[in-house]
Amino acid sequence: MPSVYRFRLQRRDLPGRPDIVFPGRRKAIFVHGCFWHRHGCRNSVLPKARAEWWAEKLGRNVERDRAAVCGAEALGWSVLTVWECEMNDLAQVSDSIQRFLGAAGLAPAGSHAKAVRSELAEPRVSVGGRR
Ligand SMILES: [Zn+2]
Known about the structure:
This protein is α+β, with helices and mostly antiparallel strands. The chain folds into 2 domains: 2-85, Endonuclease, Chain A (3-Layer(aba) Sandwich); 89-125, no CATH class. 45% of the residues lie in helices and 11% in strands. Strands 1-2-3 form a 3-stranded mixed beta sheet, with helices on both faces. The longest helix is centred in the middle third of the chain and has 24 residues, at 51-74. The protein starts with a helix and ends in a 10-residue tail after the last helix. The structure holds zinc ion. Residues 34, 39, 41, 43-44, 83-85 line the site of zinc ion. Zinc ion is lined by residues 34, 39, 41, 43-44, 83-85.
């Protein structure tokens, strides 16, 4: 798979180019648009016109996503996928990211955990226009 080779040449270039990478923890986060990556939620309903064409086109995205996750995991990385529709609830998203990063284990209670939470809750990463 070409993207794996590219990773070997350039260490920072993981399969599927994750949106957010934590190299020290070997953890990567993909932020996916619901429609383009076929989340299955109501944002991902296919247009009635040329539905088959869309299904095939977007099916290739899903295949690529799956290959990217497998590729990254094969290289010893953990992968989390965050969906566009989940961004409606940033508190929930920051919770799942914290769990994913194991932040809770590092800072079980107190002000540090809160600081991490508010940092993660700040929408610094713009995902709105991503296709
Ligand atoms: Zn969705």
